[in-house]
Amino acid sequence: MSLTFDSYSTPLPGESFSNEKIANVTFAEADIMVTQNQLPHILPNDSIISWVFDTRVPTESTAITLAAQESIPCREDLLPITQGWYQAYAAGFRSVYIDLPNLGGPIWYHFSKACLHTLSLIRLIRDFNNHLPHLVSASKILQHIQASATLPSECIDDLRGNRVTEPLAGFHVTQTALHTLGCLLNEEWASEDILNAWSELMY
């Protein structure tokens, strides 16, 4: 029985930078990852020189895993690939060659690897693109609170142990993750969820 594309292309839950891994990252861990350069590096838009789907299934670790400080395509550059990968999978393709600048030639990426469990580097890269702003926001929040010295150390320790994706506590209507509080720093635009939470406090 052949696997569906979604089953085939879903990364292992324990894979570095997977959705499941990021969901359990704490503020303290996010701060370390950001400040100590323990995250992949997202290349600027239009960094992909060329790409093509391939029928072969690579087994090299670089083709199926995502490493810290690795240079990866941005979400926008991946759109043509992710928009066409359902049709490509149905046609028998199982990987994609991506030519990126200054990386020693083309890179052979899995968009999936069929084995006892499923892996997907392209999906992993896309998901990491989505999560990076959350990790950076969490790091900024923690650094700001620690530098301001306005909260007791016990409260700061509690925040350090909270998950970045944990919902903002004490609200019945608004369900927003703690990392979204970062939009209140540096006079950035406040997200709609934060404004909804603020409004709920005024009920």
Automatic annotation (TrEMBL):
The protein's name: Uncharacterized protein
